[in-house]
Each structure stands twice: as structure tokens, then as C-alpha cells.
Write a structure and sequence with these properties.
By secondary structure, the protein is an alpha+beta fold. It has helices at residues 5-23, 32-37, 67-80, 136-141, 145-155, and strands at 43-50, 53-59, 96-103, 107-109, 121-126, 129-133, 167-171, 173-176. It has two domains: 5-103, 2-Layer Sandwich (Glycoprotein, Type 4 Pilin); 107-172, 2-Layer Sandwich (Dna Ligase, domain 1). The strands form two sheets. The protein has a four-stranded antiparallel sheet, covered by helices on one side. A four-stranded antiparallel sheet has the order 4-7-5-6. A hairpin with a 2-residue loop joins strand 5 (121-126) and strand 6 (129-133).
């Protein structure tokens, strides 16, 4: 999937409009041309930043609905349902920037050694627990592969030592900043 600059601007604007409409208890109606253009099933993460600090991030790993609907649902969730943050307030809307990560389908890897940091998003799976990092997380944190996998184990609520016994899927992300 490719995006023009106009597409990127329209999708980011959509995220902010979804949040604004929700703040005003209004119903958001997506533009018909966007609904048609992004009707193919897709999965994304919506990341919100306030003054360059994370303000919310929610996403979907598997495409189960039209991409535009997934963006709308995740925009609302990132602003109001991320358990790490309180619900966004109207006063914050002008201070928020948007980043979209449009995901490829996850693919299982035979070994963690097949993971390429900075390129692959990583899904950690072990004993019914799961966690995920978008591709940029390890490089932003200056983590090597082992540290990244230990952090995924911790994020899943498991001991760091479980990283060697876990299963991994990888995906890539098209970034819209």
C-alpha cells in the first residue's frame, strides 16, 4: 500500500477530527472519498504525542476491517482508552501530534535471530501471553536484540528469561508522521 502526501495529510486530519468529535460528544462521519480509497482491510497503530512525549498508542495487529475504520477506532482508543494515560482533554487537542503505522501482515519466524531491529515490528508470544513493539521502539531505546526480547517478555508480564523460549512474529510498518 502506498500513500500520497495528500493521503497522509487526510489520514492524520481524520485522526484529529475523530478525537475532536468525541470530545464534543458528536458523531464523526468519515469523508466518502476516504472511505472508498481506504476500504481494503488493514491494520494500524495510532500513536499520539504531546510535546514530543507519548500520549497514547493503540493498534491492531491483524487486518479485520477496512483500514479507514481501523484508523478511526484506534484514534479514539489511543486518545481515550490507553490504560497508561487519562482520557484526553479538549485543552490538549492543539498540543497533540499524530503518527500512524500501517502494518503488513504478521509472519512467524523460525528463530529470533531472523528479527531485524529497526525494520521489523515484533510480536512476542509465550504461554498465552503476548506483547508487541513497533519497529522503531528498539532503536529509539538503543536496545540490542537480546535486550529488546527481554523487554517484550517483561511487557507481557513474564520473566525476562522467557525470551529464549518464546515464539515471534514480525511485521513491517509504513509510517505516516
Amino acid at each position: 500500500m502506498t500513500f500520497t502526501e495528500d493521503d497522509e495529510a487526510a489520514l492524520k486530519k481524520t485522526v484529529l477530527e475523530v478525537i475532536e468529535f468525541k470530545l464534543k460528544d458528536s458523531y464523526f462521519e468519515v469523508d466518502a472519498s476516504l472511505k472508498e480509497k481506504f476500504s481494503k482491510n488493514g491494520a494500524c497503530f495510532v500513536t499520539l504525542y504531546k510535546n514530543a512525549a507519548l500520549r497514547g498508542c493503540i493498534g491492531t495487529l491483524e487486518a479485520h476491517e477496512p483500514l479507514i475504520d481501523n484508523i478511526i477506532h484506534n484514534a479514539e482508543a489511543a486518545a481515550f482508552k490507553d490504560p497508561r494515560f487519562s482520557s484526553m482533554k479538549e485543552s490538549e487537542l492543539n498540543e497533540v501530534s499524530v503518527e500512524l503505522s500501517i502494518l503488513t501482515a504478521p509472519v512467524a519466524v523460525a528463530s529470533y535471530t531472523e528479527i531485524t531491529l529497526g525494520v521489523d515490528g515484533i510480536i512476542f508470544r509465550h504461554n498465552g501471553k503476548r506483547s508487541v513493539f513497533l519497529p522503531e521502539v528498539p532503536t529509539q531505546q538503543n536496545w540490542d536484540l537480546e535486550t529488546t526480547l527481554k523487554q517484550l517478555a517483561r511487557k507481557a508480564g513474564l520473566s525476562e528469561s522467557t525470551w529464549m523460549d518464546a515464539d515471534y512474529d514480525v511485521f513491517q510498518a509504513i509510517k505516516i508522521k
